[in-house]
Amino acid sequence: MSPYTHEFVTASRARIDEMLAGLETRGDPAGLYDPVRYVLGAPGKRIRPLLTLASAMLYDAPEPDALSVAAAMEVFHSFTLVHDDIMDGATERRGRAAVHVKWDEPTAILCGDYLMGLSMELVTCIESPYRSDVTGRFLSTVRTLCEGQVRDMQYESEMNVTLDDYLVMIGQKTAALLETSVVLGGMLGNAPSGDLSHLEGYGKHLGLAFQIQDDLLDVTAGEPSWGKPVGGDLVTGKRTWLLLRALEVTAGADYDWFRCVLSDGLDPDLIPEARRRFSDAGILDAAQKAVIFHSEAAREHLERLPDRRERAVLRDLTVQLERRVH
Description:
By secondary structure, the chain is an all-alpha fold. It has 16 helices and 2 strands.
């Protein structure tokens, strides 16, 4: 990471954290605003707002508008996590109790609803002459993420999900928000249509790399740094890049073993065996190569954008995400 990128990331995270902390000061009813502040105050990498700010600065977008939309992307992301945790039955998020565990499911649903509305408020309050286009793109992303979430839910009971199916789903559920984060920054700066297309391509491939890396880390990460139980996806039989790839390339006893994981989930005590089987079948190496492939594709799109320091920031962030261990 270059000195400029380090300075940019440090300063931007601090500003986003400060902004998130001040978004909601109301206290009554506490049953709503306490969990909202709990979510907004959670630690995070702030990837999406960093992408928005870097792409906005690449085109000299007004800073107040860029900050508001950047915060909106983080708030919206937080909303999706609150509801995801309910649907997935997850008990922890970022090393802390999930909202529906610390409070209850109805509270978590309302908290998520409120955060979604707050994110829309942050987008629509900007003074940019491009507000209508920015709002339209933001709202279309809401639809895309909901479509991806439904696909994810449907796949939980389907035994013939292909890797191509999975890539379509994560393209909607995960990559779309990263894609929109950079596109909105460019839109605020009135980026040319060709540049917006490259921002879309960059964000899409970055998002695919991010999710495949997440799937890989679910099996290989160290638990304290990961912030959630290692192998949790396998325990629930969740469809991941690794598991679906294993079903494509294995045969015989290995295929049957992975097929059982898909249908019944995995005993937590067998996570080390799953890691060994993935390794022996070359799945861990293949997943890492897929992360590299999509990261390189993202960087290729970056090279078509204006040669400014903010482009280097986006490139450094891509490398950082590619190499992350949590």
